[in-house]
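Chapter summary example.
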Amino acid sequence: MTSELAEAVVDLAAVTGNVELIGGATSAAVMAVVKADGFGHGAVPAAMAALAGGATWLGVTSAAEALALREAGITAPVLSWLHGPYTDYAALAAAGIDVSVNAADQLHTLVQALGRAPSTTENDKKVPFLSGGPVHVQLKVDTGMSRGGAGADGWPELVSWARKYEREGALAVRGVWSHLATADTSPIGVAAQAAAFAEAVAWARDAGLRPDLLHLANSAAVFTAPRTHYDLVRAGIAVYGVEPVPGRTFGLRPALSLRTHVTLVKRVPAGTGVGYGHDHVTARPTTLALIPLGFADGVPRAAGGRAEVLLGGVRRPLAGRVAMDQCVVDAGDLDVQPGDPVTVLGPGTHGEPTAADWAAWAGTNPHEILTGIGPRVPRRYAPGKERT
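The structure predicted for these 388 residues follows.
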């Protein structure tokens, strides 16, 4: 191990392979979502590995995330979709970032913030996606998520203003999109949202818009709802190897392993209380092994009393509450020594718990487990395939 206490090892070849698998499941282009620091894997390395696997778009939440990709030298198309009234739209436009727009008011703010006419200089045309011309926007419609996007009452106004600004050269509408709420659980819900999306697209076209990209499908829909694929699929958790549909496997390979080692070992008698509140009391003489990871590092406190780690080639339970910086493993009668390796989570190929296991123990989803691995845990990258 390269870290004094712990490390998260990211298999970039797994990211690349997952994107290749996703691409093989659709005739649409693939957007790899690298928001939240690449779901905890590192946004820039994950983005490069995804592009090597055939992704042609990258998706992020914020302007800061989008601009960080550009600063790292990534020139692939990027869509950023969550913005407030103080977003630096000029910086996004200058970097060639597509901006998602949810409402007419937001569209007005964007156009006012730019305050410039399109540029037609030859210099603007030299670098793809980095022109000084009209900002590219993608209009988001709420088809049933009741979250981001214009609802049925606001969609006509958004479309009308977008077409007006487009005619004036202030922007170009590149896409129309929405997000599915139940692709992992309910085909009926997907069908209803797909119908609402088709209606919204028809309205936009009737208004004179001609978007190049229509996209609706998320990770689960990539594998279960081909009619939602349109021009582009947005893959998030699947890129990182977590199966997106409960109870089904599609051959994805988890890319992250969280590893540490034992820092202290002690043999205790039966009746020994462990940790805060003595929630756990040993039922028999046992060996306790301390590991230097806690809830500040992403080990969920809610998993205490249920979670396990891989120690000595076998799974052993945590004993007592997860603390901020450490937790205790009940090693039983294993011959454990300080420095022995511990795998907290990984692909599961050697018996270690997976992110899905931890999610079940903590009553959450694998997304929260992966994105919760804190900055105190350094990332180490196993090399991926070279992009061709």
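To summarize the output: The CA atoms of residues 99 and 137 lie 5 Å apart.
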